[in-house]
Every structure is written in structure tokens, then in C-alpha cells.
Amino acid sequence: MKADRRGALLGLGTGAAALAGGGAALAFREPPLPPGPLSGADLSRGHRLRQGKFPAPSREEHVGLVIAGGGIAGLSAGWALAEAGYDDFALLELEDEAGGNARSGRNAVSAYPLGAHYLPIPNREAAALRHMLERMGIITGTADGLPVYDPMQLCADLQERLLWRGKWQEGLVPRTGLTVKDRADLAAFDAEMTRATAAIGNDGKPAFATPTAYSSADPAWRALDRQSFAAWLDARDLTSPVLRAHVRYAMRDDYGTEPEHVSAWAGMHYWAGRRGFAAPHVADNVLTWPGGNGHLAGLMASRLGNRIRAGRIVHAVTRTGEGVAIDSFDVARGESVRTHARGAILAMPLFVTARLVPEVDATACTYAPWIVANVTVAQPPRGAGVPLAWDNVSSTSESLGYVVATHQDVAASAGATVLSWYLPLSDMAPASARRLMLERPADEWKRIVRDDLLAMHPELEIGEIALWRWGHAMIRPTPGYVWGAAPRHRTELPLFLAHSDLSGLSLFEEAHFHGVQAAEAAMTTLGHAHASLI
Amino acid sequence: MADADPQSRGKVTAPAGALLVSAFVVATCGLVYELLASTIASYLLGDSVTQFSTVIGAYLFAMGIGSWCSRYVKRGELRLFVRTELLIAVIGGCSAALLFMLFPLIEHFRVALYGIVLAIGFLVGLEIPLLIRILKDFDFRETVSSVLTFDYVGALAASLLFPLVLMPQLGMIRTGFAFGIANAGVALALLLALPRGRRMRGEVAAAVVILALLAAGFAASDRLQRWGEQASYGEPVVYARSSRFQRLVLTRKDDDLRLYLNGNLQFSARDEYRYHEALVKPVLGRVANPASVLILGGGDGLAAREVFRDPAVRRVTLVDLDPEMTALFRDTPALAALNRGSLSDLRMTVINADAFRWAREAKGRYDAIIVDFPDPVDYSVGKLYTDSFYAQVRRLLAPDGMMVVQSTSPLVAPDAYWTIATTLEAVGFATRGYHAYVPSFGEWGFTLAGLRPIPVRARLTPGRFVTAASEPQMFAFPPDMARRPVEVNRLDNQALVRVFDAAWSRYES
């Protein structure tokens, strides 16, 4: 009997072990990762500049003005030149396509952003930008003295939702399960930001303006730039974890940087720098398109037409008797071109400009690396709570969540869509994060993206994950940068700087302002009559 | 086995093995039932963390009660063990089907949910101590060790099988029945393994009946799902299909045919004439010559039927999102009889497209436009009630044309009703609201919209419901439905979906 029982035990044990083992094998045999490319800002072209080995120019061309760099600043400069009737310029762009971090991609399902994906309703002071939006038909007219925006380009409801305690809720600030301290801190923070939004400095200018150049020079406000936002919050005992998580989300969202490394001025600007100039119900909204800000970049680029010379690595800037000579390497032809011009707008990130122009010192500039993944899914995500929004954030994820590329589509959404998923690598020093970003294999990044999305939506059917790596996605507004290091960047005539790095906030409005400002300064120097937009 | 007679020891060997196997099966099945209940609760109620946590907690607690109660069992452990096992087979096996079918029928679903979980937990909790007692004549140390080992190994098997094999392969209802069968099968095997003289005939018969019952349930799982659906509609389902866009369900009870889209009633054949006459007659009666008519939505062809009653109509364009919907109402004889073949009329052009996208690109002018969309229950439909949409439709209306918009109930959701008029006026329409009583809907509202002031009088051919005499009464609004100040419905605020949702949740609760 003993033997029999042992036999029964053994048999059963073996059976159970086999069953468990089989199950475990099934569990650990991971489903294959979705297909999709790994791309990003062209590393070999960027790094080639660092090595500096280019052939001597074998071709020459002549234009009135050169714009080096075709991100939003360069495109805005070109757009302002064209708008003022100055057509004799060429824009040299390193990549095959202009647009910088506002570029977009497209697949069979939808266009999608590769980086910047929205533009808040501009403030009153952003006159040049509003002018451009008018010309683009995005501002359709005025009513009661306020610009009227095309409703199709305003972000449709539902705008934002947060996965909080297992349920999607509207808005990005948690509303349930809060402690007394959470509520008190959220209210106190809100009050501080409301006060700062309305604050006017001793020179009569707003304490926080967008573009930042219109901000007050009042030292009482600018002093905020010297401390970190985290320190500012600590000093006010605003330590609620819920508030701090929200602040961290915001700082990583706009600056790719932790609150400990963002200046308090820049941190507050996120909330206090927005006074959308429009009817009250539109003022807080944003403009967005399936391809994100690639839509705006595309409109600007089409205005510039064949004046954009893509695939050109600018590798030398030399002052000459009549102006400036720009040497660029034409990637397609494998030769260097010398472009003679009376002046040049340098619209590249400052760390690139610093390699070309000795008077620019970019040692204070640090850049946040980002991973953006465009994930094609068979069905729109769902989840308990409020329905799918444009911007969907999980309170338990390190990522910033995802935006839905087809959100603005007025048609019934029954089928596939593209989710643009964002991750700033903000939790380590930028250089280390960049190394990690490059060394971690594509499959590992895909696994991170997939698992993050499946944690929010276990039912999600992922078809493709297109990864995009941004080594230098955006300037970091570290303490002392915005009102310390940034304004000190200058060049001698006939060189003009244009980039959001000059503000320290990587925002469309900043890039646009610096582009237009540089274009107008260049036209003044060149003696081209124009009406100032700024 | 609880047999003291040493000579019979050899005979109890097989039942001892079988008992240990049943410990394994009981543990596996118990956990599967628990996982099923959690999954169904998450599926039906949402918030999986809460559901899993509370179901597992309730189950383990009930096991404790069962274990504690086992002390009151003085004798007949084996018989009780077998009976318990059979009871678990019945309750657990049917639990998934039962929960699905009960959900639409009962108000307090959680009572049923936790009732089932507690019952299974109680019975499983009762079994383990019984088993140990049945095996008490063996070495106690070894018995406890074996029973608990099999119990825990069974739990592992269940937790791996459930997500990896059962859910994807069998689905919830079948999984329930399959494990009920396993439960009952083990009980039967145990009964048959008993020494001859100790057979329990009644239990054997019960086990066979239960097995047959569960096997039948397993085979009829799909039909059970249908019955569940039928129960939730309250009438026999004669057609159910999920298209790319929606779930179409047709029910028939006696002479009443009803269409549901995503569970919302679209019409009842008994009184739809009231709705469709009220929708169509006032608008066509206010156009001098309604030669060309545009219908947005209305894929059932019933509004089109009313439109074709007007001899002036030459061309009708119907834009409906769902090709399956228009094909169903064009090709099914009973439905084509209901809409009098309006969808295959030579004057009819059916376009399957999203109305918003179509309207943005459409050209031409229509003398009358009939907007008959589902209620603004979600953001996707809500877009079809926005100022941006009406601005597009406005382009398509002839200068002296007239439009009507299905506008939800002015009684249940007055804010929603008046939001539609307010939104139409925001894009330059003149409006006049009216309402009609449709028994299956309740008090229902419509909004006339035109580029000029809406005429008070209409040229009306008498219908069953709308006549020249009855029509003027529809335009009077008593105070409980009176106009009120509301927000314009825009793409960026979806004010209508929000007020509509608030009003109907209030009404239904």
C-alpha cells in the first residue's frame, strides 16, 4: 500500500510538475516583439561634424543670406524673410527634411509626431506667431477683439486623462483618494501659479511671458531662475507626493528634466507663462494635428520651397570681405559647397553653433535625450473611467504616456490608430542617458514601450513600434540658464543667432520668436525695408 | 478507508490515491472558479484590482468558514466529501454562465457574485479537513503533508492554466463548465474506486446527472451567451451581429420588431411611425418643393420611407456610417417590408461614410436635410452635434430649404435638448423646437432649423400621427421642458455629451 501510494504520489507529482512546467514554459516564452524601425536624428551626420573631416569646397554658390539649420527657428526666420518679400536666401539643413524636433512621420494609418506635438493658444505678446497663424488660416478672424481659431485645429474634447488608482479620470491632476495635505498643497500651488500668471514686474511687463523675451526684467522675479524648482517647492513646504508627481510630470513633459534640475523660473513658467489670447473657452486649449507640430513645420517649409537645401552639413563659417562664407557638405553628392552670402542666420542648436563660431560658448548648454515611439494599434485603447483622450498619462508609469494621432479626426473612430509614446531620459545625467539610449538595443526599447502600454491597456493589440531617438531633444532650463547663460549668447555681424536655446525653453513660441527676430535683424543690416512683427 | 478493519486496508488503497488526486483537482478547480469570478467581475464592473482583491479575499474567508464548520461533521466524512465535491461541480461549473446571464437581470450583481464566491469557498474549505480526516488512519504526518502539497500544486496548475490556456482557448463560460466536469468526474471516479460493498448508489447517479448537465452546458455555451443577451434585451433576439462600428441587435416579440444599436433602442415597429412621421412631415411640409432630400444617419430606411410618401421628392441621399446596417435593412425581407423598400428605391443613393467627413467634402444643395443620428452617448457621436458639424451641413442646405435634427428627450434631458437648438443658432440657423410622444421612447424632441425664420404653418399630408390638426400642438413646450440657457456644443468642449450623460444617469438612477 505504501508503495502504491508512493506510486500514486509520484505519478501525480510528475503530472503536476509537467503541467506547471509546461505552463511556466508558456509563460516565459515571450511573444515576439512587434516589428518597426529604429530611427532618429541622424547620428552619423551629427558626429561627422564632431570629427571635422570634410573635403575642401568644390562648388560655390551665392545668395544674399544663409540660414543654417532648418528647425522651427530656421524655418521661422525663412518664413519671416519671405513674408517681408526678401527672397534671396538659402536654408541649409543637415537632415533630409526640415522641421527639427517638430518633424512628423506617417504610415498607412495616420501621420504622427516624432517630437513636438502641440502649440498652446499663443499669448497676446506673441504677435509674430499670431500673424503667422493668421496667414496659415489657423486664426480665421476676430470676434470681440480676440482672435478666432479654426475649431478643427483646436484640440477636441476629451483633452487629457490620467490613469489614477486603476481608473482613467479627466485632467492630469488626481482628484480622488487625496489626503488633507495633498488637497492643501494642490490648492496652495494653484494659488501661487494663478498669482504668478497675473503678476506684473516693476517695469510693467508680465513676470512670465511667452515668448520669454517679453518677460519682466524685475530682479525680484528673475531671481527665481537661480534656484531649482524643487528647492522652491521645498521652501514653501509644498511636499505632497501627489503635487510633486504632477510637477515632475510637467517638468519632464516640457523640459525633459527633473524638477531638481529645472530653475524655479522655468518651472513656474510652465503654468504662469500661458495667457492664451482668445475667447475664454479657447484660451486654455492647444492647437494640434495628427502629425503634431510637423503640420506647422510643413506649412512653413512649403512657403520656402526650393530655398531649403536639405542634406547639407554646415562645417565651416568664415567671415569674408563682403560678408560670410558657409562651407557645407552635400551628403547626396559627397562634396563640399561654399555658399557666399552677405550674412548668415545660425539657427542650429548652440552646441553645434559653438563648433563653428568661436564667439559662441555652449558650455552652459545641456540637452535632454528623449525616446519617442509611434505605436500602431488595431483598436483604440479603452480602460475603466473616462473614454480615450488626446493625451493619456498613467500615474504609475515612468513614461509621459501617449497622445492619439487620430484624435482630431472628426470621423467615427472604429479602427486602427497610432499612439505617440514619450519618454524623456531625465533620471540620469544627460551624457550618460544619451549613451544608454544609443547602447540599449532597439528590442529592449521596444519591450519597454510595449510593456508600458500593456500595463495601461492589457487588451491592446500592437501592430508596429517605430522608435525615434533624440540625443539632444531639447535644451534643459537648469538653474541660472534662462536669465544667466542664455542672454549672453551673442555673435558679431553679419552673423545672427536664432534658436530656442537662446531662451532656454524648447518651445515652438521661443524658436519662432528668435527666428523672426534674427530675420528682422538681418534684413535691417542688409538694408531690406520691412515692417517689424515683434 | 476510514475503515478500522485491518483486513480491508488493501482495498482502500485505490481510494486513497483517488482522494489525493481529488485534492489536486479540488484545489485547481477552486482557484479556477475564483479566477473566473474575478475576471468576470473585472469584465463587467471594471477596476480589476478591486475585483481580484475582493473576490480572492472573500473566497479565502469562506474557506475559513468551511474549515471551521467541518468540526460539526461527526461522521460520514466520505459521503459528505463526495457530495461537497459534486456541489462544487454544479455551482462552480455553472458560475460563469450564471454570472453572465444574471448581470443584465438583477439589480445587485455583487450579491450574486459574492454569493457564488462564498459558496464555492465554503465548500472547498470544508473539503480539506474532511479529506485529512478520511485519511486519518494513515500516518498523520504524511497525510497532512500530502493533502496540502496536492492542494498547493493544484493552485499553481490553475494559476498557470487559467491565463495561458483556458482564457484564450475556451473563454470564460466554457472554462467554468470544463472544470465543473473535472470536479464531477473526479467525484465519480472516487465513487467507482470504492470497494464494492460500500458503493453509494445515490451519489453515483447524482454524479452522472451532474456530469451530463455540465457537458450539455459546455456544448451549449454559445447559446447560453445568446440567452444572456436576450435576457438583457427582454425580448427574443432574432439577429445579432457586431459590425466594424457597432453591435446590431434585432429582437422580435409577437408583432413587435425592435432594433438596438450598442444596446440602445433605435425603434420599435409598433410605434416607430410616430417617431418617423414627427421627424419627417414637419420639415418636408415647410419646403415649397422638396425635390432633393439629404438624410444623415437613418440607415434603417424608415425616415426615407416617410420621405418617399411626399410626391415632390425626386432624389434622396442617405449617408450612414455602417454598410452592414444599410445592407441589413435593404436585403432582409421583413425589414425591407417595414421601410417599404426605401433603400432600394431608384430615387435613393446610399452612401456609407462618416457623416462629418462626408459633409466636409460634399457639394450641392438639398431642399431638406434630415439629421437622424443616435443620441449623443459618446464623444464620437457627440461630434455630429457640434457647431463645426452644423456649419458644414449649413453649406448643403438650399437658401429656402429646411432641416430637422433628432434632438433627444426634452423631458428627460432638457439641457441636452436645448443645447442642440442653441448650437444650431450659434452657426446662424433659425430654429423651432417641437416634441412628440413615442411610447417606446417617451417624450421625444426635434429641432427645425432653417436659414430664414421657420414658418408656423406647414403643408401636411395627413399621416397616422401627424396631421394638420395635431401638428401645431407639438410646438408647445410646457414649463418642465421649457427653454433654458445652455452652452454651445463644440468639438473642444463636447458640452452635449456631458449634459446628456448627466441627465440620463440621473433619470436611470
UniProtKB/TrEMBL annotation, chain A:
What are the GO MF terms of this UniProt record?
oxidoreductase activity
- Limits of the Amine oxidase domain: 72-521
Return the InterPro entries for the record: Amino_oxidase (IPR002937), FAD/NAD-bd_sf (IPR036188), TAT_signal (IPR006311), Zeta_carotene_desat/Oxidored (IPR050464)
List all membrane-crossing ranges: none
Q: Which SUPFAM superfamilies match?
A: FAD/NAD(P)-binding domain (SSF51905)
**Signal peptide positions (record):** none
In residue numbers, the region (Disordered) covers 35-56
Record PROSITE patterns: TAT
- What PANTHER family has UniProt attached to this entry? AMINO OXIDASE, PROTOPORPHYRINOGEN OXIDASE
What is this protein identified as? Twin-arginine translocation pathway signal protein
What is the source species? Sphingomonas spermidinifaciens
From TrEMBL, chain B:
Identify the keywords attached in UniProt to this record, alphabetized. Cell membrane, Membrane, Polyamine biosynthesis, Spermidine biosynthesis, Transferase, Transmembrane, Transmembrane helix
Known catalytic reactions: S-adenosyl 3-(methylsulfanyl)propylamine + putrescine = S-methyl-5'-thioadenosine + spermidine + H(+)
Which residues are catalytic?
D372 (proton acceptor)
Query: What's a BP term from Gene Ontology annotated to this protein?
Result: spermidine biosynthetic process
Per the record, the pathway is: Amine and polyamine biosynthesis; spermidine biosynthesis; spermidine from putrescine: step 1/1
Binding sites annotated in the UniProt record for S-methyl-5'-thioadenosine: Q246, D320, D354, A355
- The superkingdom listed in its UniProt entry is Bacteria
| Transmembrane residue ranges | 12-33, 53-73, 85-106, 112-135, 147-166, 172-192, 204-221
Any idea where this protein resides? Cell membrane
One Gene Ontology term, aspect cellular component: plasma membrane
- Domain PABS, chain residue ranges per copy: 207-451
The membrane-topology field of this record reads:
Multi-pass membrane protein
Question: What family does the database annotate?
Answer: Belongs to the spermidine/spermine synthase family.
The record's annotation in HAMAP family points to:
Spermidine_synth (MF_00198)
* Function description: Catalyzes the irreversible transfer of a propylamine group from the amino donor S-adenosylmethioninamine (decarboxy-AdoMet) to putrescine (1,4-diaminobutane) to yield spermidine.
What name appears for this protein in its UniProt entry?
Polyamine aminopropyltransferase
Q: Which organism is it from?
A: Sphingomonas spermidinifaciens
Supply the source organism's classification: Bacteria, Pseudomonadati, Pseudomonadota, Alphaproteobacteria, Sphingomonadales
Gene behind the chain: speE
